[in-house]
């Protein structure tokens, strides 16, 4: 009976297999056709993408990611035989993918988020099995970006093919579509006649020296909350003031992308439930122009986050109907907001027309003089105001620490000036004076790389590791800007937003944590502009590994040198200089250099 039963199963199995094969054939044809022109491109670059090296974001399946990664770095036998696969091209629906700010991921994973707290605009990074392991394509017709300073006022429409903001904000002079370009007249929701005039108004209201917003160098760093397309920050730059222009990936989806395309410092972020990734006392001025934030919610927790970030004597410039309108609702909001900031010991420094400017106290005296039980309370004495990565906001006032800031450091400026001069000499055959604008130092230490670029017409996003020394505070003390980040995750920026990335021992540092060199290479490719440059300074083993990926990534290296000029390598460190090629899907991935 068993034999007859087995034979019957085999006879039924044949048609079943045929049906399954037909179904798979249909699906292949359907999805191949649906993908259209990108299907062949993806096949050219290896559609059967596998993790044969075990190099995914985070741990490997067996939990021993560090062993797998060490093997890739040549710490096990057989390293020389590793040949990296080619990478497929992502579907063009993902040409603006930001992996940790992907709205589709939230929908697909059915995350239970509180929309009223803006949790859907916060970072939610994909698990390994949901990560895109492919090259992000540029949009059809992509062009090398217009150079600074011309880019402040115009960009190629093909590079960011979104014109809805131009129509939605047509009466506010945000942006205007003209032929194949998008122009930025410098207007904003509350400064229709130009950011330059609005900035001069703020300087006059505060009686700054010579009516200059930098106030003889005393105002250097600004946080612009709900920045729109960052015209406010763009026009501050000519006054030697740098702004961290901040906005979420919300209904004005591409506002930060426009800002970065213009060459203006900007960052995707939201005042939600987590602290912003900046240490306490980082900014001399915070600014909100019709930023549509409910400052009264949750006992004023969002305004208290600004308070944490402002320096002693720092200002908050607020342009909004509540500051001047006379209808019942606006008057109610104004009364409640005035009561809140009074309890926070802020004073009105100036008020004119649509704008009010508050100033934060210089000392703790006012906090100590408050009556018992007054809200908001002071934060706990053991709370670290500079801990920001994965730390939730608290509705409390951050007093000035009585502990002396004892970290001893040296800028070692001279060494970094020599290093940067050496970098520029190596890159100079491939660039002109305005080729490079948006720069990122991926492991910034104390910001000396950025400081050494002070004579270049560039700005630098200084990225400090979330698990390293709290040097970001020093970076802001130097009048520079930056953020905290974990390079085992994707960075909060759009694709194609930086011209130059500097990675000093970044790959070696993530190796120690069992994270993926391969994923980091794909992330670097995502955020780097076509024709952009990468300076990788790392161990020789890391450099040799990365060189094996160049062809698959459409990168080319043009120099490999010792880490220190005219000397032997320091601890085995080597510098690899790379340029990203230009390729377009609709040009069959043809090299357009």
Automatic annotation (TrEMBL):
Q: How does it sit in the membrane?
A: Single-pass type II membrane protein
Provide the Gene Ontology terms for cellular component: endosome; Golgi membrane; trans-Golgi network
A GO molecular-function annotation: methyltransferase activity
Q: Does the keyword ATP-binding apply?
A: no
Which keywords label this protein? Answer: Glycoprotein, Membrane, Methyltransferase, Signal-anchor, Transferase, Transmembrane, Transmembrane helix
Regarding protein family, the annotation reads:
Belongs to the methyltransferase superfamily.
Protein's name according to its UniProt entry: Methyltransferase
Q: What is the lineage of its organism?
A: Eukaryota, Viridiplantae, Streptophyta, Embryophyta, Tracheophyta
């Amino acid at each position: 009976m068993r034999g007859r039963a087995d034979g019957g199963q085999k006879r039924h199995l044949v048609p079943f297999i045929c049906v399954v094969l037909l179904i798979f054939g249909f699906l292949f044809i359907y999805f191949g056709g649906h993908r259209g022109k990108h299907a062949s491109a993806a096949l050219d670059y290896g559609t059967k993408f596998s993790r044969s090296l075990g190099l995914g974001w985070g741990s490997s399946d067996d939990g021993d990611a560090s062993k797998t990664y060490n093997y890739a770095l040549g710490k096990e036998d057989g390293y020389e035989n590793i040949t990296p696969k080619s990478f497929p091209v992502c579907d063009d629906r993902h040409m603006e993918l930001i992996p940790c700010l992907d709205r589709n991921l939230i929908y697909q994973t059915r995350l239970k988020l509180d929309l009223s707290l803006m949790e859907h605009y916060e970072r939610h990074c994909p698990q390994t099995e949901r990560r895109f392991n492919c090259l992000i394509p540029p949009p059809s017709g992509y062009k090398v970006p217009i150079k600074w300073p011309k880019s402040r006022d115009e960009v190629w429409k093909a590079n960011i093919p979104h014109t809805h903001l131009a129509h939605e904000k047509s009466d506010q002079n945000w942006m205007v579509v003209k032929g194949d370009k998008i122009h930025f007249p410098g207007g904003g929701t509350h400064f229709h006649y130009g950011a330059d005039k609005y900035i001069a108004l703020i300087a006059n209201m505060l009686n700054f020296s010579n009516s200059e917003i930098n106030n003889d160098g005393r105002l250097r760093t600004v946080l612009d909350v709900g920045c729109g397309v960052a015209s406010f920050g763009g026009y501050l730059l000519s006054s030697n003031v740098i702004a961290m222009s901040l906005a979420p990936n919300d209904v004005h989806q591409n506002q930060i992308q426009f800002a970065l395309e213009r060459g203006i410092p900007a960052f995707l972020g939201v005042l939600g439930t987590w602290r912003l990734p900046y240490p306490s006392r980082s900014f001399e001025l915070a600014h909100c122009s019709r930023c549509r934030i409910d400052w009264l919610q949750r006992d004023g927790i969002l305004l208290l986050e600004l308070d944490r970030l402002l320096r002693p004597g720092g200002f908050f410039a607020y342009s909004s109907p509540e500051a001047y309108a006379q209808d019942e609702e606006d008057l109610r909001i104004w009364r409640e907001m005035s009561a809140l900031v009074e309890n926070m010991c802020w004073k009105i420094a100036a008020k004119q027309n649509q704008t009010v400017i508050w100033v934060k106290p210089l000392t703790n005296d006012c906090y100590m003089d408050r009556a018992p039980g007054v809200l908001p309370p002071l934060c706990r004495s053991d709370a670290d105001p500079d801990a920001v990565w994965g730390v939730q906001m608290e509705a409390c006032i951050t007093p000035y620490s009585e502990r002396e800031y004892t970290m001893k450091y040296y800028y070692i400026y001279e060494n970094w000036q020599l290093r940067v001069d050496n970098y520029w000499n190596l890159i100079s055959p491939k660039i002109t004076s305005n080729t490079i604008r948006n720069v990122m130092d991926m492991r910034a230490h104390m910001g000396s790389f950025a400081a050494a670029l002070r004579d270049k017409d560039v700005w630098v996003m200084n990225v400090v590791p979330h698990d390293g020394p709290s040097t970001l505070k020093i970076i802001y003390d130097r009048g520079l800007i930056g953020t905290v980040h974990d390079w085992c995750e994707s960075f909060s920026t759009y694709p194609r937003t930086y011209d130059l990335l500097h990675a000093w021992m970044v790959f070696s540092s993530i190796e120690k944590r069992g994270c993926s060199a391969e994923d980091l290479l794909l992330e670097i490719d995502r955020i780097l502009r076509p024709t952009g440059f990468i300076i990788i300074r790392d161990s020789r083993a890391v450099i040799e590994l990365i060189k094996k990926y160049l062809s698959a990534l459409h990168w080319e290296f043009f120099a490999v040198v010792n880490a220190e000029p005219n000397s032997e390598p320091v601890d085995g460190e080597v510098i690899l200089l790379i340029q990203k090629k230009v390729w377009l899907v609709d040009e069959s991935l043809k090299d357009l250099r």
